[in-house]
Specification:
- With about 180 residues, the chain is mainly alpha-helical.
- It has 8 helices and 2 strands, in the order αααααββααα.
- The protein has a two-stranded antiparallel sheet with strand order 1-2.
- The radius of gyration is 20 Å and the shape is elongated.
Amino acid sequence: MGTHTASQRIRPSRAADVGAALDALRRIVQGLRLSAAQAERQTGLTGAQLFVLQQLAEAPAQSLNELAQRTRTHQSSVSTVVTRLVGRGFVSRRRGAGDARRLALDLTPAGRALLGDAPETAQTRLLAALEGLPRAGLRALVTNLNSLVAAVGMEADPAPLFFEPADNPAKPDRSTP
């Protein structure tokens, strides 16, 4: 018989907890990566671009800020994605009816046609899962994830849509033909 006490046998070790946390993160990242690759194979779009199209398919957006809220990301990130989708003819921008300073966003017929055979994105499933968590659990997750981000020194890094190329003029955008 070993030297472990009953409480040590019942409670996993810290190393096991760290391993379980890493495994969970790996599964999420892998799921997002595979979903993005499937989206690209099937549609020619990045996973982030497909996610934005799917959000617009649910309802047009009255502004970039509204679309940013729906995708739970920063306005500058969604703006970059929308610009690429407009350039490829999948999204249209028009002046808002009530406020000419706003740009309303909608799918074009080509954007709607592309969505016909498109897979569901992992971002959609992740968003639904997070929204389904109990409020206390979600708050604890946010607190712990933010602590982890700070501990690894990434708190100043931007948080763009998953796997979307940065809008960097020095690097070519490989998401367009």
